[in-house]
Amino acid sequence: MFERTSVGLDVHARSIAACALDSTTGEIIRQTLAPDDVTAWLERLPGPIAVTYEAGPTGFWLARTLAGAGIECQVAAPSRLLRAPGDRVKTDKRDAMSLARMLRLGEIVPVRVPTADQEAMRDLCRAHAAAVKDLTHARQRINAMLLRQGAVYPEASHWTRAHSAWLGRQHFDHPAAQAVFESLLEAESLAVQRRKRLDKLVASAAADCEYTPVINALTCLRGIDTAAGFGLAAEIGDWTRFTGATIGSYLGLVPSEDSSGQTRRQGAITKAGNSHARWLLAEAAWIHRRPYRRPGVRLLKQWELVDPATRIRAQEGNQRLHRRWEAFDARNKASTKANTAVARELAGWCWSLAVPLQQGAAMKAA
């Protein structure tokens, strides 16, 4: 649909700078608005109108509000916005004007706007990841302090009941050191409790949500447990937007490139797109380096939840990804680079499992 008025919004927590371009009269309308006044101001503009704003910390509530009011709104991907190299003046009004002009020219690359339920699931998976990282850091601090004091646990396995009992027997002569050690143990205990609570919430949400079939399929791959499968499903959402070749690009797992003429240079991965999904895939890729001859107990239980075609496809993926690791190790490839390559291919296998399920669900809904 042709829009008479193109509107760019520079959104902040307490104020929004708006710029509207009327293509019929050429008029430029600028306004500084409170967040609650945006919809009413837009409805007074000559229509039809289209609106865009840059994705950022304010989230997607404004896009959902405008969509509910029947106003077309695109949330622009920040990394794909056009900016002149010589433009060194940045203000809210200029940003709003730039967004309005790009929208008029059709140069906005939109991001997918999740529903409120989908955003809540995304927040849950990120909270779980944060809890896991906090627990890791808490344990690292305990290990670091013990190492500085010359206390080394004699066994190879850590954070077991025996290790916890050994930690409880440690004592330091200086009161300050003992107080710090007890504080670190308390922080680790609280982090464990928090992670366990979020584990239960993730398991409950994954078992009964719109992404449950996709999660069950993704967890048929090695390295992807319920939390990782839930995170990938919530972060990516609609897998049918991509192909097996473009999913790696979306996740920033493809090499950057600087080529001109007959010269072709490739560098590190772009790290574009969803950083949390990329991290989940990179962590899962390390598991495929381990020997794989037959599925373990977890995979066998998981395979009971999916159809035979998904089970066969997942088994092919597990075997293929392990062979890739073996080939990289045989070539003495740097492990970090090899893991990135395996993560990129793992993204393609995840896509091949998720897309048939979502396409089938869409056909049934139609």
Describe this structure in words.
With 366 residues, the protein is of the alpha/beta class. 54% of the residues lie in helices and 10% in strands. Helix 4 (116-148) runs antiparallel to helix 6 (175-207), helix 7 (212-218) runs antiparallel to helix 13 (335-365) and helix 8 (226-236) runs antiparallel to helix 10. The strands form 2 sheets. A 5-stranded mixed beta sheet has the order 3-2-1-4-5. The chain has 3 domains: 5-105, Nucleotidyltransferase, domain 5, CATH 3.30.420.40; 116-207, no CATH class; 212-365, no CATH class. The protein has helices at 38-43, 61-68, 92-105, 116-148, 161-168, 175-207, 212-218, 226-236, 247-250, 275-287, 297-303, 308-330, 335-365; strands at residues 5-11, 16-22, 28-33, 49-54, 72-76, 255-257, 266-269.
Please write out the topology.
Blueprint: E1 5-11, E2 16-22, E3 28-33, H1 38-43, E4 49-54, H2 61-68, E5 72-76, H3 92-105, H4 116-148, H5 161-168, H6 175-207, H7 212-218, H8 226-236, H9 247-250, E6 255-257, E7 266-269, H10 275-287, H11 297-303, H12 308-330, H13 335-365
Parallel strand pairs: 1-4, 4-5
Antiparallel strand pairs: 1-2, 2-3, 6-7
Helix pairs in contact: 4-6, 4-8, 7-8, 7-13, 8-10, 10-13, 12-13
The order of strands across the largest sheet is: 3-2-1-4-5
Which structural class do you get from the secondary structure elements?
alpha/beta
Strand content: 5-15%
**Approximate helicity band:** 40-55%
Q: Which value, in Å, is the CA radius of gyration?
A: 25 Å
Poorly predicted spans:
none
The overall pLDDT average reads: 93
Question: Strand count, sense and closure of the main sheet?
Answer: 5 strands, mixed
The number of domains is 3
Order of helices and strands: EEEHEHEHHHHHHHEEHHHH
Number of DSSP helical runs: 13
Using the alpha-carbon principal axes, give the shape.
globular
Distance between the termini: 24 Å
Counting DSSP E segments of at least 2 residues, the number of strands comes to 7
Protein name: IS110 family transposase
InterPro entries: Transp_IS110-like_N (IPR002525), Transpos_IS110 (IPR047650), Transposase_20 (IPR003346)
Domain Transposase IS116/IS110/IS902 C-terminal: 217-288
Pfam family, one: Transposase_20
